[in-house]
Amino acid sequence: MRRKKRETKRPNIPAAVLHWILFTRHYLVQFPLLTAFFGFLLLLFAAFAFLSPLPPIINHHNHSSQLKNGAKAEESTLSKETSSFHVPRSGGRLGSHLWSSRSSKFYYGCSNASESFETADTRKNSDRYLLIATSGGLNQQRTGITDGVVAAYILNATLVVPKLDQKSFWNDSSDFAQIFDVDWFISFLSKDVTIIKQLHAKGGKALNPYRMRVPRKCTPTCYLTKVLPVLNKKHVVQLGKFDYRLSNRLDPDLQKLRCRVNYHALKFTDTILEMGKKLVQRMRMKSEHFIALHLRFEPDMLAFSGCYFGGGEKERMELGKIRRRWKSLHASNPDKERRQGRCPLTPEEVGLMLRALGFGSDVHLYVASGEVYGGEETLAPLKALFPNFHSKETLASMRELAPFSSFSSRMAALDFIVCDESDVFSTNNNGNMAKILAGRRRYFGHKPTIRPNAKKLYKLFMSRHNKTWEEFASRVRTHQIGFMGEPNEVKPGRGEFHENPSSCICEDSAAKARAGLTLTPQNRLDEGHKDGKENINKNETSDVTDELSIEDDQDLTDMDYVDNGTAVKGKGLPGEMLLEEFFSD
C-alpha cells in the first residue's frame, strides 16, 4: 500500500513518451548501452516534471474588482503580453502626408474688406466711446477682443483698448500692452475702427462709463436696439463679461473684420514672440517635424467635466471635492458624459490615437499642459509611447522663463506660439485655445489639426484588448476622418466662427484647374479677390481656431483657465467661487 500511495503522487508520464518507449523496447533490450542511456534520460524527465511548479491560479474576479476600485493602473501599454493587442513602436507606412494636407495648397486665407465696406474715416462718430471688459483666460479674452472690435464697428463708436481680466481665478495682472503689441493693434485696424488707448477727460472731468452686459450671441440688430440707444444717451458705455457676446453668424464683411482682428491685428509683444520663437527653434533642432499636444488633463478640468477615469474611490473623492466648488453644477453622470464624447481622453489614450494615426515612437512631442492629475504615473504610458517628450519647462531654463512664469496669460502665449508653429497640433478637448488655434491653422494653410472624435473612440478604447492592433488602428483612422483639420471638413457656418472661419477661406480655382481637379461650389474665389491672394504675413500675428463646435453657448468642458498650460503657482480656486465667475457664464 505504501508503494502504491507513493506512486500516485508521482507525476504521470505523457502518453507520447509511453508510446515511444513501447515502440523502442525491442531495440533497447538488444543493446544494453542504449538501454542505460535512455533510462538516464527518462529519469531526468521524471525529475523535471516532479519539481516543476503548478501553473498559477488567477482570480479573474478579484483582478477585475481591483481595476474597478482603481487599486492600480493598467500595465504599460507597451508591455502587455496576455493580449493580442501589441502596440508597435513604429507608426507604420502612412507616409509623409501625416505632416501636411495634400489639398491645402488649393486654399488660402482671405480677409480683405469688400469695396462696399465703409471705412472708419467715412463713418466716424466722435461722441460715442465703447469699452470692453474681457473675461476668462488668454484665449477666451482673445475672442472677446475680436468681437469687441466688430461691436464697435456695428455701433459706429470709438473703441478704447480692451481691459483684460485681472480679477478672476487667473489672477494675472497683465494689461493689454503687456500681452499684445498695442500700437500695431491700433494701426492695423485704423481703416476699420478708430481705437484709442484710454479715455480722455472732457472739460477737465474724467468720463465714467455706463456699465451694462449684452446677451450671448447678440446679433447686429440686438446691438443696435439694446446698446446704441444707451450709447447715444450716455456717450460712454462699458460692456462687461465680454466673451461670446456676438452672434456666430454675421454678414461676410463683418466676418472678415473678425479675421483681420484675430489673425493680423492681435500680435504678441516682441518679448513674448522672441521667447516663443526660441522654443520653436529648439524643437526644430531636435527634429524636422513635431507634434504639439494640448493635453488638458488638469484636476480642475477633470472635476468640471464630471467624467470618471478609472481611479476608484480616491479619484471620486478628490475630483468630487473640487467639483463641489461650483454650486451651479448638476450631479454628473460619468457614463453618459463619456458616451456623448464630452470627456477628455487620458494621456495614454491620446498616445494610442496618435500611434494608430501613424506617428511612431521617434516623433517628438511638445506638451502644453498644467498640472496633470496623477502626475508622472498618469503621464508614464504617454511617455512610453513617445519618449521624446518636451514642454516649455524642459526646453528653457528657469531664468529664461522668469519674466513669464508668474503670469498665466504670458505662459499661455508661449504655449500658443509653439502649438501654432507645430507641424501637427492635437487637442484633447475643444476649449478656447483649441478653437482659436484650429481656426488660425485653417486660415494659414490648413496645417493638420487633430481633434479626437471622442464619441466614437471611447467604445474602441474600452474594448481594445479584444482586438488586434491592426484592427484597432484601422478603426481609429476611420473614426478620425473629418477630425483632422482638412479643407472643407466642416460645412460653412457650422461650429464657432473662431474655429471654422469659412468666410475667410478662399479656394484657389486656378491652382485646382492646373492640378486637373474638379472644383467644388464651396469657397470659390470671391469676385473681390480675383487679383490674387492677399499678402498675408503670418508673423504679423499669433493665434488660431479649431474644429466643429457647439453653435450655442460654450461646452461645459470649455474651461479656459488651464489652456495656458499653467495656473499661477500657489493660487487655487476659491471655495465659494460661483460657476459664472469661473466659467464666464
Number of helices in the DSSP assignment: 25
- Placed side by side, the strands forming the largest sheet appear as 4-3-2-6-5
Beta strands, count: 12
How helical, in percent, are the residues?
Answer: 40-55%
Question: From the 3D coordinates, which CATH architecture of the domain at 270-297 and 344-511 would you assign?
Answer: 3-Layer(aba) Sandwich
Outline the low-pLDDT stretches: 1-11, 48-82, 519-585
CATH T-level fold name of the domain at 270-297 and 344-511: Rossmann fold
What about the largest sheet?
Answer: 5 strands, parallel
What is the structural class? alpha/beta
Please name the defining characteristics of this protein.
42% helix, Rossmann fold, transmembrane helix, transmembrane, five-stranded parallel beta sheet, GDP-Fuc_O-FucTrfase, disordered C terminus, 585 residues, glycosyltransferase, alpha/beta, disordered N terminus, transferase
Task: Report on this structure.
Among the domains are: 120-264, no CATH class; 270-297 and 344-511, Rossmann fold (3-Layer(aba) Sandwich), CATH 3.40.50. Strands 4-3-2-6-5 form a five-stranded parallel β-sheet, with helices on one face. Residues 1-11, 48-82 and 519-585 have low confidence and may be disordered. By secondary structure, it is α/β, with parallel strands linked by helices. The protein contains 25 helices and twelve strands. GO terms for molecular function: glycosyltransferase activity. One of its GO terms (biological process) is fucose metabolic process. Residues 522-553 are annotated as: Disordered.
